[in-house]
Amino acid sequence: MNDPQATVTDRRKARDDRLVTTLLLGRIVAPLGDTVCRIRNLSQGGAKIEIRAPLAVGDPVSVELRGTTLVPGTVAWVSGNTAGVAFAAPVERDMLLGHAGQERFKQRSPRLEAECPAILRVAGHAHSTRLLDIGQRGARIGGAGNLARDTSVRLEAAGLGHIAAVVRWSKPDTIGLFFPEPIPFVTLSAWSQDTATRFSARG
Prior knowledge:
Structural class: alpha+beta
Radius of gyration: 20 Å
Number of strands: 12
Distance between the termini: 72 Å
Mean pLDDT: 85
C-alpha cells in the first residue's frame, strides 16, 4: 500500500528539481572557444541552451549562469541550434534561481573578453580606443581617457556596428559602458566566434 505522505514528499522533490524556464543570456566555454548562449531552462542537474556555435555530444563545456563562476558539464544532446548540458555536479539553488543578497552570485550579464580597436564618439568627436570586454548590455574599453558618468556616447567596432551607450563608470585607463538597447543575440554570437576580429589587436 502506498504511503500518502511519501507520495507528497516525492511530488515535492520532483517540483524542487523541475526546470526553471528562463531566457537569460549565458556564456559557454566549448572546445572551439567561448561564445554566448540563450539559457532556455535550468535544473540543478543541467540546462537547455540555444547556441549558434557547433557542439557535439560528449563535448566538455562550462556554462556561466547569471554572471556566476563557470559550471562544468558535458553536452548530452544536440538538435539544430539547441543543446542539452548535463552538469558535472548539482548546481546550488541560490545560483539556479539568482536569489538576491548572495554576494558570491553576481547578477551581471556574462562578458566576453576582447582585444580589438574601437571608436568612441563623444559629442561628435571620435576617440580611438580598445574594446576589452563586452556583453549584451555593456562593455569595458581602454585608452579613451576620463569621461563623466552618464555621458552619452557611441561605440563603434568591426562586426558590431554602432552601439548607443552611456558611461557607467570611468577610470584613468578604462571606462565602463552601459547599452540602453541590448546587442541582438545573433549579432553578439556571430561576433564572438570571429576570433580574427575579436582579438585583432593582439600581437
